[in-house]
Amino acid sequence: MRPLTDEETKTFFEKLSHYIGENIKLLIDRPDGLYCFRYHKDRVLYSKESLMKVACNMGKDELISFGTIFGKFTKTGKFRLHVTALDFLAPYAKFKVWLKSAAEQTFLYGHHIMKSGLGRITESTEQYQGVVVYNMSDIPLGFGVAAKSTAQCRASDPMNVVVFHQADIGQYVREEDVLT
């Protein structure tokens, strides 16, 4: 476990700002204490500083994980946000998409969102902007990237893709099948 390098921090914060903008500082300096991001086995972990200090006392081989996994770095140096970060990012999301109940299941199976399944979208969402996907009951379901801006969504065909799928809460069920 170690702090992120300057290049890793830059890549990681660029990815986070794609979804929550300037609200990144709210993740670090929270009312319940100071939090930090650490790198361990290609993954970025988010935890309270006191927990991180306790985890530092363990050897690299003995430590499996601590805190919450926010995502992982690929071998090419790109950062992929993991669905476990959803609960922390959803309250700070600048751009949101709400799905109709008929489209929820297809999104949770890992498919893109079509315009016919779109319930609402945050005004002034730009094309290729990171969005948090909710159901109509305001429960966060996952992440996506807007394939079209808000204005383009209004004028598009019902079968056009409006949000590209990135991660969703159904991922746990799909991955569990592979592990057994």
Tag the structure with descriptive keywords.
180 residues; Nuclear Transport Factor 2, Chain: A; Archaeosine Trna-guanine Transglycosylase, Chain: A, domain 4; five-stranded antiparallel beta sheet; 30% helix
Task: Describe how the helices and strands are arranged.
Elements: H1 6-20, H2 24-28, E1 29-30, E2 33-40, E3 43-48, H3 49-55, E4 68-73, E5 79-81, H4 86-89, E6 96-99, H5 101-108, E7 113-114, E8 118-121, E9 130-135, E10 140-146, H6 150-155, E11 161-168, H7 171-179
Parallel strand pairs: 6-9
Antiparallel strand pairs: 1-2, 2-3, 3-4, 4-5, 6-8, 7-11, 9-10, 10-11
What does this structure look like?
- The protein has 180 residues and is α+β, with helices and mostly antiparallel strands.
- The chain folds into two domains: 6-89, Nuclear Transport Factor 2, Chain: A; 93-176, PUA domain (Archaeosine Trna-guanine Transglycosylase, Chain: A, domain 4, Roll), CATH 2.30.130.
- It has helices at 6-20, 24-28, 49-55, 86-89, 101-108, 150-155, 171-179, and strands at 29-30, 33-40, 43-48, 68-73, 79-81, 96-99, 113-114, 118-121, 130-135, 140-146, 161-168.
- Strands 7-11-10-9-6-8 form a six-stranded mixed β-sheet. Strands 1-2-3-4-5 form a five-stranded antiparallel β-sheet.
- A hairpin with a 2-residue loop joins strand 2 (33-40) and strand 3 (43-48).
- The longest helix is centred in the first third of the chain and has 15 residues, at 6-20.
- The chain is elongated.
